Amino acid sequence: MILAIDFDETYTRDPELWDGLLGAALTRGHRVFCVSARHERQMGEVRATIGRLIGPEVCFGTGGAPKRRFMAEVADTHVDVWIDDAPESVVEIPDPGQGPA
Ligand SMILES: [Mg+2]
């Protein structure tokens, strides 16, 4: 299973909790990513905290882009389970031309 956890207001709310859960997931052979809407220049804190557990190379900042599409296109990764305090940030942003009038 591929898991992706958000950083701000998700991981940061209780890092010890998530370290325990994500560590168990890794031990059981699951893959764990951290996917934040932060810009790349803001990812240092992410890689210095959760990145120590899961690896800095699997911490991604989408720069505000929808997370699911970003991971598919940039990381060639299709996440199975998202853990996020703002689930709307995972899904595609509707095409403005197709939105309600
Ligand atoms: Mg968040």
From TrEMBL:
Protein name: HAD family hydrolase
Species whose genome carries this gene: Gemmobacter caeni
Lineage per the UniProt record: Bacteria, Pseudomonadati, Pseudomonadota, Alphaproteobacteria, Rhodobacterales
